Amino acid sequence: MVQSVLQIESREVLSLEIQRPQVIIPKNIIVKCPKCKELLYERDFTRNLKVCLKCNHHFRLTAYERIELLVDPGSFVELDADITSADPLQFVSQSQQYAQKLEIERQKVQLNEAVVIGHALIENMPLALAVMDFRFIGGSMSAAVGEKITRAIELGIKRHIPVLIVSASGGARMQEGIYSLMQMAKTSAALAKLAEAKLPYFSLLTDPTTGGVTASFAMLGDVITAEPGGLICFAGPRVIEQFMHVQLPQGAVTAEFVYQHGLIDAVVPRQDLRKTYARLLHFYAHIGTCVGSTLQTPLADQDIQSQTQGTGSHLTSWQTVQIARHKDRPYAADYLHFMCEDFLELHGDRAFDDDHSILAGLGILAGNTVMFVCQQKGRTAKEKQYHNFGMPHPEGYRKAYRLMSFAEKFNVPLVCLIDTPGAFTSLEDEEHGQSSAIAANLYLMSRLRIPIISVVIGEGSSGGALAIGVADRLLMLEYSIYTVAAPEAAASILWRDKSFAQDAANAMKISARELLETPHLVDALVPEPVGGAHNNHSLATDYLKEALLKHLDELRQISLDELLERRYQKYRAIGACSLVETASTSF
Fold this sequence. Notes:
Layout: E1 13-15, E2 30-32, E3 39-41, H1 42-47, H2 63-70, E4 77-79, E5 92-93, E6 96-97, H3 98-109, E7 115-122, E8 125-132, H4 143-159, E9 163-169, H5 177-196, E10 201-209, H6 211-214, E11 223-226, H7 237-244, H8 255-260, E12 266-267, H9 273-285, H10 301-308, H11 317-324, H12 332-339, E13 342-345, E14 358-365, E15 368-375, H13 381-386, H14 394-409, E16 414-420, H15 427-431, H16 434-447, E17 452-461, H17 462-466, E18 473-477, E19 481-483, H18 487-494, H19 501-508, H20 512-515, E20 524-526, H21 537-556, H22 560-572
Parallel strand pairs: 8-9, 9-10, 10-11, 11-12, 15-16, 16-17, 17-18, 17-19, 18-20
Antiparallel strand pairs: 1-4, 2-3, 4-7, 5-6, 7-8, 13-14, 14-15
């Protein structure tokens, strides 16, 4: 695990901590907000972390202000502060030599380059740090910037600690031509090595983050966050408007815009940033630290028996459907709320959208970090619309794919909670590749080198359920269902009338108790409180949590190679075939 005390190599160190002189700010100094034009007393404005008290506009911070905001006091150790840009092209623009411009910038900003790197602690947890400063030639990417950021990443690899990069940049530095462009490849290659070392990379986007920085290290984070209102894009509004002759709508290419389109995980207000990164480091610190499989107060077998006496073994599949769909039945979010000591939702497919029917993120379960990928329906009319009735779009499955891969990268076990009437069907979803998105998940899950448990907590229908259902252990709650198609859909296909849904459900034998008899399919039933989980959410969660811990503990005892072979053989064995005798034919 990571070290809590960093060994400092004196030849690398140029300053041991940030030395910031105390400044007494007179009460009558006024700052004008560029967004809402409000006049602010600088003392109040500074105490509010340079965020407008009226409109919440986040003013830009210097690199050292940003570091002071994020890390434990006195813990930052700056490295390589003497690295600065050369002038490889002997560049001259408007009668000014680039070398002269660099010297002017150094004197004005009191930095040698547009990034500060080093290492620090956040709540005593170490990380490597690179923080860009927009004041230095617009935070543009020079060879020196690329070199320093690469060194910060290599520091993370060398010391086996997470890396955080804070971006603030107008893009490539034109005065260095192709040398600037190649820094995109250099920093990306370094991050690929960091990924191979199974070390986390956190990316914070601040105003502005554009151009080659956005198209390289800024958007490669395992977790990407942004401050509210920041400009986040490849081509800025001015470039788009000049080349395409179109006026961008208000709010386009902002932090909120990229969040809405699934490109980042969260928009985090400045006052919450340190807490957010502390939580992320906490999740990382709890990977694989707990193997125990019991609850604090485990439920005895007789307690389970007494709470589930009179359960519905006599119920038909159609009657079970009604319980599985009960409006008060706990959904994935309810189970996560009761089960996890902490849960951090992650967002977006990194390509187009954030589908809210897939609820996914990192959770702490009995002291251990777990990746949860769940289908979420929603209880109220507003929630149902928000979660699309638990029916994922392709973007939802691609978000699931991303976070399953995330789990494998950091050796985090994967738990999937299935509860869907099926994948969403529309022309737009076909255009976006619904079939290929589901197929990619089946392919990925079959070979993920981590333990996987999938649990049907309500209804699981069609490939929309199976897309997060390929697992080492498949569990079903006692009153859940799993089916090739929703009963109504099957009735429409076979009876050509959805009113025959009851007949279809009973004929297909879709209840958990019936499916338990299918060889190699369901590994265990999870009991529910008398009458169903909707009668006691807390007790239902206890049963589920105990089952998860039991099966996770068992799976951890199996080598990864054997785990994958068992997973393959599990699905290889499912099916019912017979041979038809035919007369031999000779030619």
